[in-house]
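Entry for 4-nitrophenyl phosphate complex. Fields follow.
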Amino acid sequence: MTAKNSKNTSIKVLCVCLGNICRSPAAQGVLESDARRRALMMQVDSAGTAAYHLGKSPDPRSIAALSKHQIDISGQQARQVQLTDFDEYDWILAMDKSNLNNLMKICPSNLQSKLVLFSQFSGGDEDVKDPYYGADEGFDKMFEHLKSLSEFFLDHIESQRL
Ligand code: 4NP
């Protein structure tokens, strides 16, 4: 678990799920909000391993779940992970183990250490469940899970700076 991290540089984080319309755009919004509150310099983006929804806005249910917490993700547009991301980002946070496995297949071997399961920072290995085919409540649960994982991740980033 290593990443470039000095007090004067912005940390670059890429959140990754399958479609880039439900979980990773929400993770981006939560991390941006939490990093801002902690005055951490962090640039966050998100992408999907699949190309199903290129250019689309986040799922309206993700937008609604986050707007309840004053986080606006409506301006994001779905994109697919590209090879240059592995150079560009310091941390690549996979929302579930399937996403992580897909990333491991395409990431150059010397950059694999940038790939992590988002829940790793909580001391667990649970997936951020895909709410796409479920009921609206799944999106509120997704938010709560992401919020918790975001705080664990940012605690880790801050602990590296001490
Ligand atoms: P996400 O959810 O990976 O959290 O964006 C999904 C969105 C769309 C699909 C699957 C998962 N899909 O099959 O279209």
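NOTE: Residues 17-23, 52, 130, 132 surround 4-nitrophenyl phosphate (CB under 6 Å).
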